[in-house]
# Entry
Amino acid sequence: MAEITFYAAECMEFPEQMGELHENLTLSEAVDVYMWICRRGRPYGPGIGFVLQDESIPDYSGTKWPLYQGRGIAQEMIDLIPAYRDHPLVKQTVEDMEPYLEKLEGERKEERGMERSGGMRR
# Structure
């Protein structure tokens, strides 16, 4: 039986080597942790990813893969792996991300405003 979990990382390029990594989350929890990471103002390129456990795709089962990075859903990255692109759980996850996009975009705008003003969050 296939299962998908999520993670939020301070650095999506090297999630296990740089910065914080929060794993085994629900999508809602991953969004909350991502927003918390962003509010701290670390410039490592945070994001949200998924881990799909599915024995029918052994080459990719259990691999960390991007779902959301600062500019939106990482559809190009998902499309690189047909097993992810075509998987029903991944397709559902992309749909489930839609309601969070406005919230995440608002967070990015707020962060950019803080960077331009030179202000710090507390």
Remarks:
- The beta strands are 3-9, 21-25, 47-53, 64-69, 72-73.
- Residues 3-116 form one domain.
